[in-house]
Amino acid sequence: MDLTQGTAEEKNRRAKKMMLWFGIVSLIMGFAGWTSAYIVSSKREDWVSDLELPSAFFISTAMIILSSIAYYMAKNFVAKGNQKMGTILLLVTLALGVTFISLQFVGFSQMLENGYYFTGPTSNIKMSYVFLIAAVHIAHVVAGLISLLVVLVRQIGSKYTPDNMLGMELGATFWHFLDFIWVYLILFMYFVK
């Protein structure tokens, strides 16, 4: 397929999708770097391998998975012309995304209550990585929430139709990526002791 061919609208769609994928690949590289550093650091003598992740992280994982399912369903309803259900499910996705972030902060509080700090004399390298990786992911979820709000406002304004869903498709792809990356991170931090 020649990417230079097609109407201006088709070229615009391809360009926007390509830019999103470039961004996703760069984020994957960033998280790969942090998890690689985590693995290398796990060989240090002061690495503490018996630390447990906070329970709130596991509950938040369920929330982000449910939010991804809700976004997927919202997109499908809009694609079938059911705008009302699409809007409701986007609102559910938003609520679940906010719940995810709230539970992440509960997880941070649980770590602090257990005496694990990001820095300082009572910190350890493993928990510093856990704080860092989770905080960086939260920052990206905030960007995802902003994207979701834009999609929601456009959906409420009847901008999406079964024939015009590019913005929703891009937003959903980014949101599903955030879901995938968190599931990867929680499994990584749980199994790599």
UniProtKB/TrEMBL annotation:
| Main localization of the protein described in the UniProt heading | membrane
Record field: transmembrane: 20-41, 53-74, 86-108, 128-153, 174-192
**Would I find ATP-binding among this entry's keywords?**
no
Q: Where in the cell is it found?
A: Cell membrane; Membrane
- A Pfam family of this chain: COX3
Where in the numbering of this chain does the Heme-copper oxidase subunit III family profile domain appear?
A: 1-193
Q: How does it sit in the membrane?
A: Multi-pass membrane protein
Q: What are the alphabetically sorted keywords of the record?
A: Membrane, Transmembrane, Transmembrane helix
Tell me the InterPro entries matching this sequence.
Answer: Cyt_c/ubiquinol_Oxase_su3, Cyt_c_oxidase-like_su3, Cyt_c_oxidase_su3-like_sf, Cyt_c_oxidase_su3_a-hlx
Taxonomic superkingdom: Bacteria
Protein's UniProt keywords contain Oxidoreductase: no
* Family stated for the protein in its record: Belongs to the cytochrome c oxidase subunit 3 family.
Output this protein's name.
Cytochrome c oxidase subunit 3
Q: Which organism is it from?
A: Flagellimonas okinawensis
